[in-house]
Specification:
By secondary structure, the protein is mainly beta.
Amino acid sequence: MKEWTLEERYRVLESPEDIRDLHERIKKSVYRQKYHVQPVTGLSSDPNGFTKYKDTWHLFYQWCPWGAVHGLKYWYHVTSKDLVRWENAGVGLKPDRDYDNKGCHSGSAISTDEALYFFYTGNHRDENWVRTPYTCAAYLGEDGSPVKLPEPLFGPRDDYSEHQRDPKVIYVPEKRMYYIFIGAQTLDKKGCVQVYRSGELLSGWTFAGQLNVPGYEDFGGMWECPCIGRIGDKDVLLFSPQYTKLPGRSESTNHNVYIIGRMDYDTLTFIPDGEYQHLDFGFDFYAAQLASNVDDPDREIIIGWIGLPDNHYPTEPEEWEGSMSLPRELRIRDGILYQTPLPEMRTLRDGILYTDVPEYDEKTDACADGTISENASDALELPAFGEMELFFDGKDAAFSLFAREDGSGGLTFSYDAEERICTIDRSGMDKRFNEKVGEVLTMPLRTPLKKLRIFIDRSSVELFANDGEETFTTHLYPTERERWFRTAGEIGTTIWQLKASVEDNFVV
């Protein structure tokens, strides 16, 4: 594995030609995704600036262009008309001011009828490498490129640690006020959220106070990427607690959770309805961000980073790493978030490769009770990228994705019907990674397992259980011999080939 010097990691990208050859090498990788947003070169991490402006969806991701390493961060820009087909648009924000001299770190966006605005953390370091995080703003110029304000909106508070970042901007109509939520850490190293407010987007910001979340005063050592949204009559608080282990999450110290409740902007208190829940139970899901301008009071749309801070992946020797998750539709049912792929994802289906479900309805993704064939195949060849629907009869069941032809290995999934627990194990894959963090995780369900919808891309797998009751996301890097699907138990199966929907073009 390459050892990166500080100078290499924080080198300034002077010209697209600096990385053109790198892109030419990277695009030949067998693990390049076909319908997930991925870095044009180097490392992609947190999703940023996710919003709809006029008739176009804008998404940025934190980007280090030089390789699979955290260093000088840019925002890279992609666009879409339908949240399914994405086009590279080039560099969005670049670290070219003193206040962001060592990186444009994560943030958000908001649009009005007149303009699209961006809020981000400017990572400044002095000659002694002492960090100062600034909250900065920009707007989309007439040429389609962000235009930065000459000065930051505000600097850090000295009554918190240096960890103050990831501004999420929202507008609260009943207060006629804009708010910025910032992930932070107290001086005694406890995770929290700072709240700022202003009647104007680009001026007048004042510190309103620290968000109070009763029962979560000692939850994690830093809250990254705080995000708040509203679904129906409920508020949803999302954040990524760091420096802490949580039950059932093996050795990981980075997580993504949500709390449903009610936000009181007068007292800056988020009142939980119950305990926190995991946004995704998988090995690789982090820093999820809600889109702005969804224009539907009963849903939100979310996208996350398939990856985790400090983890390492098999594409590092190829000098690239990371991708975004599928955008997911969020709705609240029975007191929990249900996450489902957007309906537009069905437009990528390019023919059924296999089905043993006689009464399957493709339009509704429905399987009538009792229609699972007794002659279902237990050995199928998987597409390199595609979609699966699995139907269960309520009993114990198991299957393997990307097993070898003799049935060994693969990503194994087992369901304990009595306990309603799914166990996912990736230790059987040829390419193993992050073994010390953990290779086996569980996904508890609230209702019996009836259905799994699985999206397979060339280096990731996303599972949606019971129409989004729970989700599980993992990177996966199958070798040439790992291409079989094996089952044990009554499992109905439908497999589609999918069309590619991301352009792997060199645009910088």
